[in-house]
Amino acid sequence: MSFIAHLQEIPLFFISLCTITGLMIGSFLNVVIYRLPKMIEQTWRQQCAELHGERIAAPSAFNIATPRSMCPNCKHQITALENIPILSYLLLKGRCTQCHVRISPRYPIVEALTGIISGFIAWHFGFGLMTLAALIFAWAMITLALIDLDTQLLPDDITLPLLWIGLLINLKGGFTDIHSAIMGAVIGYLTLWSIFWGFKIITGKEGMGYGDFKLLAAIGAWFGWVMLPLVILLSSLAGTIIGIGLMFTTGHKKDNPIPFGPYLAIGGLVALFWGNQINHRYFALF
Description:
Blueprint: H1 3-9, H2 11-51, H3 87-91, H4 106-125, H5 129-151, H6 156-169, H7 178-203, H8 210-223, H9 228-249, H10 261-284
Helix pairs in contact: 1-2, 2-4, 2-5, 4-5, 5-6, 5-10, 6-7, 6-8, 7-8, 8-10, 9-10
């Protein structure tokens, strides 16, 4: 039996492979989450200097691949054995091998979350191209949610390719038909754009960023316009519940901004897995 046949005939093998792949991708996502905002900031600084006619020294190479991952405290370069998802963190007891400074537990949490979601996608969709598409979407949601949580940025480097990929996947009726996907992208963007300007006109303040518009447009491109009310409702509920929880547990002030991207990502993932069932049950009531 060939390798592909094993994946098709033995679901447990396929699910296990996707879970292990998800763990490794989660390790890569940790790098993207940390480095991509810094790369964007570096580009902004260079562009601002050029606009002002200033000369700045050429920055050292810094991208997703360069330099190698290192301890932020002692600059010890992380070896391959120290970079095995979850296992290395447990064996190292969550500390750097050189300076023994504690490593953030978020790294193994992101790896575990990505692995679990990847395995669940394999179980939910089974062997096929739709699973690959769903994995790409879920990995993008995890990355965007955590970047927004850290920096209140939703990089175009991820949101815009995600939108185009969603439209391409639906050309032949992937998650929805292409008409619904195009309308989803347009309505998704315009919905939050309208809320943004309405809130700004009334209060004089900006309630969200343009990255939120693009993220909802991308979700609309993947799942169609009919899924947008569910995504917006779930995102708003999650934001309200978590926001109130933060106010009571951490003293978070209501005037302090809370990124909306993570809640849109939650809504997008719910739409990926159960959106059609939820909508069917809702419409059945009428």
